[in-house]
Structure to design on (505 residues):
């Protein structure tokens, strides 16, 4: 297999975008081509979840390849729920590693704010089991609420720990121009003050408003290339060194211990093994904090901390920028935003910035190994990536 | 007639599946004739729960209580709760009732009450 590198990157703001889905995909693609100094690609993968349902547009990759005048390059749309982004990166990796293509553009794009909040919630809820979850009114926040309650009971995680994740990630997002939320929140404001119950009402108790990521539009792009191509362009050598993917039961109730995220554990293990590194070698990570509890749980499952101790590491400040293992310097899904199909590519975008040393005020010093965890459904399909700076 | 929620039991190894799977998760049996349909029990204890304040479409209520129940035979089910102050570990029993109404049909599912 051939080694695969990141030649170029691009991103849009994650917020409400008032232009068509195809352009939300094309602009980060254009930025990435310029970043890499390339004009052509052999193939295009576009990760997207809601085009058909929300925007009335199917076959998105075919539309994007034409919009960018990249025809006749091959193009495919990848739908793997909220893990679509990292799944598309995996496809790009395989296309290059196998020798089939030399330059592959991977885009993630989503435009969900066009739908009203009810439709958007329902759209994401279609990820749940149709007969055993969805018909009851189960949504992703509902599954996260039930998961959080168990986690609190078993490990002593409190509302304060959850708020600490939110405060940290909002703070990080203040230094990220492309983040959805630029709102410097405090524990006082969302938990302790008399206004807190109005500022921060329950969404799916014990989860409150500030425990849940916003609904975002947005796009991101990575151009992947061979070592040969990298020699011709003058970009830092960031290697996509490890990929892991695993699945778990569709229904959360079928998991032997529903506080365990076995797909996260397995995908991370595979990714680290392939890259030849250990969790303790990671300098910076982007974890899928669609709900604050997930940052804590994933930080344990991927191996940064022991099971049940993620919230203690958070208390000690180990996950802040400057800490032992900074998590979500971009602001994470919580504050950077969560345009579902684009999220996995957005996470990789941040890691490449960090490894290149181009992350500005939120730069993690001497970042050498970066890691992403892109969590589909309620952890039933997870893709983890490891990047190494050479 | 008493309504039930049905699980799928593998005749070869006895493994119970809820919801239905095409291949037995324990022994790999893949002939659908080798599965029998058995009603799930209705008594159990509450494993976890939430009250949802942002409801999906089709609901005309303000909040919806949902939970996962461990049934007396050890199987689990996700259902709605009609319980004032739910607590982890409390005993509950279920009834099969309408859990969602959309434009086309009424969907039946398990609603749990305090036992
Ligand atoms: Zn069997």
């Amino acid at each position: 297999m051939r080694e695969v590198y990141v030649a170029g990157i691009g991103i849009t703001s994650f917020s409400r975008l008032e232009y068509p889905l195809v352009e939300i995909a094309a602009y980060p693609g254009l930025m990435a081509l310029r970043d890499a100094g390339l004009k052509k690609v052999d193939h295009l993968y576009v990760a997207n979840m809601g085009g058909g349902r929300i925007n009335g547009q199917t076959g998105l990759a075919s539309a994007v390849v034409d919009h960018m005048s990249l025809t006749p390059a091959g193009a495919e749309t990848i739908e793997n729920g909220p893990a679509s982004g990292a799944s598309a990166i995996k496809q790009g990796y395989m296309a290059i590693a196998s020798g089939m293509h030399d330059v592959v553009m991977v885009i993630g794009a989503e435009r969900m704010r066009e739908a009203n909040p009810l439709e958007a919630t329902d759209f994401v809820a279609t990820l749940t089991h149709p007969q055993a979850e969805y018909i009851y009114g189960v949504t992703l926040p509902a599954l996260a609420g039930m998961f959080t309650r168990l986690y609190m009971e078993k490990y002593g995680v409190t509302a304060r720990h959850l708020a600490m994740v939110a405060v940290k990630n909002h703070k990080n997002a203040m230094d990220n121009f492309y983040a959805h939320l630029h709102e410097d929140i405090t524990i006082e404001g969302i938990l302790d003050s008399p206004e807190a119950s109005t500022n921060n009402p329950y969404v799916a108790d014990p989860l409150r408003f500030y425990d849940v990521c916003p609904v975002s539009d947005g796009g991101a792009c990575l151009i992947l290339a061979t070592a040969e191509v990298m020699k011709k362009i003058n970009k830092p050598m960031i290697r996509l060194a490890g990929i892991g993917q695993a699945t778990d039961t569709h229904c959360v109730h079928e998991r032997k211990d529903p506080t365990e995220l076995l797909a996260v554990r397995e995908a991370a293990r595979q990714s680290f093994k392939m890259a030849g590194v250990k969790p303790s070698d990671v300098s910076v990570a982007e974890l899928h904090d669609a709900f604050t509890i997930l940052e804590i749980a994933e930080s344990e499952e991927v191996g940064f901390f022991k099971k049940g101790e993620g919230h203690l590491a958070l208390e000690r400040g180990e996950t802040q920028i400057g800490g032992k293992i900074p998590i979500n310097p971009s602001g994470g899904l919580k504050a950077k935003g969560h345009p579902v199909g684009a999220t996995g590519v957005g996470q990789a975008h941040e890691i490449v910035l960090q490894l290149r040393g181009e992350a500005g005020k939120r730069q993690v010093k001497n970042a050498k190994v970066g890691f992403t965890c892109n969590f589909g459904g309620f952890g039933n399909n997870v893709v983890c990536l490891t990047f190494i700076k050479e | 007639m008493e309504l039930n929620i049905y699980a799928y039991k593998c005749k070869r190894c006895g493994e119970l599946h809820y919801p239905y799977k095409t291949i037995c998760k324990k022994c790999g049996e893949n002939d659908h004739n080798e599965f029998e349909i058995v009603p799930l029990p209705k008594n159990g204890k509450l494993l976890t729960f939430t009250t949802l304040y942002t409801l999906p479409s089709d609901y005309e209520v303000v909040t919806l209580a949902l939970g996962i129940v461990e049934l007396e035979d050890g199987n689990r089910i996700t259902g709605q709760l009609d319980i004032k102050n739910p607590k982890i570990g409390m005993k509950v029993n279920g009834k099969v009732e309408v859990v969602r109404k959309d434009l086309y049909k009424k969907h039946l599912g398990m609603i749990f009450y305090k036992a």
Summary: The pocket of zinc ion is lined by residues B 10, 12-13, 15, 24, 26-27, 29 (CB under 6 Å).
